[in-house]
Amino acid sequence: MILIDAGYLTARSRYIFRDLRTSHGTPMGAIYGFLCAIDQIRRACPNEPIKVCFDSYSQWRVGLLSQYKATRESRQEGWFGSDKQLQHAFEKDSIKKLLPHIDGVTVVEAEGAEADDLIGIFAKAYPGSIIFSADKDMWQLTQYGAKITSKIQKGKFVFTECPPEFTQIPPQNLALYRAIMGDNSDGIPKIPKVFAKEVQQMAMQCSTPEELLTCNKFNDTKSFKQIEEYREQLLVNYEVCKLPPNRNYTIVEPPKVSLADARETLDLLDLNSMKRLIKY
Asked: How far apart are CA 153 and CA 141, in angstroms?
């Protein structure tokens, strides 16, 4: 199975084809690039089902950690109603209209679930999946035999190399490592004054906060004393980082879009070359 992070692929396509516009001046690079990638993936893996996973607002994470992704553009004042927000919404809506009409492609979305959560759920259910994403959290899912890629070239996936700091840590222990070391881009705070090498040693042997806190091997290290002091923060960070999360989600069925509407969308975007992707 191919599992695609829709937000990542949209942003990547938007950047690569940033100068592409319709005859009316509407930016359409994100949609064009997305469809091109889907076409290449289908050619590379013609017999594999493709699930395209979309983000929904993760209220439960923000409830646990108020600063979660607070620096993201979409969380800033003035975002809603801005030209950029409207353009991004148009891109997402157009892509979701077109994908159900492409053979072998399924749109997946669930209230309160990020794309990462859905990818985690499916990667666990379908061992050996290929994950199309640039998110480091995806490396947790290699415990289920998943392979990670963020690009496809000449009809072949270019698989991503494991980040150096993860190479000695079992994938099922990576959520613990991430929970201690934090992630500035997601607003997940690092446990203060811990040492990366000591944390790596801990994560090589422990998979959960509970296992680490009851383990006697690291009691004399400075990092462990800090972790004990900030244990509540660690527990919150771990729940936010873990994939798949310990949550039950209800998959939202995408609205029905007629074939005529899908083809009209392609006409509006001057994407006649992509009509060959649409199934009749």
From this structure: 23
pTM: 0.94
62 contact partners, CB below 8 Å, separation of at least 6: 68, 69
Rounded to whole angstroms, the Cα distance separating 238 from 234 reads 6
Sequential pLDDT tens for the chain (280 residues):
999 999 999 999 999 999 999 998 999 999 999 999 999 999 999 999 999 999 998 889 999 999 998 887 666 667 777 888 899 999 999 999 999 999 999 999 999 999 999 999 999 999 999 999 999 999 999 999 999 999 988 888 999 999 999 999 999 999 999 999 999 999 999 999 999 999 999 999 999 999 999 988 999 999 999 999 999 999 999 999 999 999 999 988 887 889 899 989 999 899 988 988 987 5
Q: Is 187 left (phi over 0), alpha (psi -120 to 50) or beta?
A: left
CA dihedral 107, 108, 113, 114 (to 10 degrees): -50
